[in-house]
Amino acid sequence: MNDEERRQKLELLKKSGFEPVHMAYTFEDFEVTGPTKNNYDACRAFVENPLNLYVYGPAGNGKTRLAITAIKNRLLKYADEYGRVIFWEDFKNAVMADMRNDSTEYIDSLARRKCLLIDDIFRNGVNETTKAAIIRLFEKWGNHGKKKLIVTSNKDIEQLSKILEDDRAVSRTVGLFDMIIENAGEDYRVRNLKEKVVKAGQDFNARAVSLGVMK
């Protein structure tokens, strides 16, 4: 890849909502073990195949990083696809702005995308406006038979159903996804902290031994 091609790809990702830290994400970053293998395999498949994925699990186990890696690789491989990465707080703010202007343009613009990631939906609660917006987006996506959608959440399908409430909306939402995947595993932030604590303890012990304080 020459400098001009690299510049064009970076510009594509920037326009699609990627942040600078996301540019370095690769599939090689992940340890593919039992609890995360299904999610990893599905996100790898997303790069080559048109799929709608719902990935749920507790905070900190790599859902967002893996989903961003998948959609980034998809957009880099198929540069003509009109993609977007949306984080929940940004989604809520844009939807509320539309409501104040009595508009649905934001949701309609997302529905026109060919490839979409919505990260961490319904995090920190929900209101009727954002709920209606998600239902509208999912209905428009499904009505057009579109694929290449990834949604991440800490809500499983039962919890999501309670939020949506309406049986028709629940049925259409669940039916939209080709795969519903639980991303299990330890919070990587907690794991990293544990590793730092262990290393700090080892360093302290080694230093104490060298000073003759410990044997």
Automatic annotation (TrEMBL):
InterPro entries associated with the record: DnaA_dom (IPR013317), P-loop_NTPase (IPR027417)
Single GO BP term: DNA replication
Superkingdom in the source lineage: Bacteria
Gene3D superfamilies (alphabetical): P-loop containing nucleotide triphosphate hydrolases (3.40.50.300)
Residue ranges of every copy of the Chromosomal replication initiator protein DnaA ATPAse domain listed in the record: 24-172
Record-linked Pfam families: Bac_DnaA (PF00308)
Full protein name: ATPase involved in DNA replication initiation
Annotated organism of origin: Elusimicrobium minutum (strain Pei191)
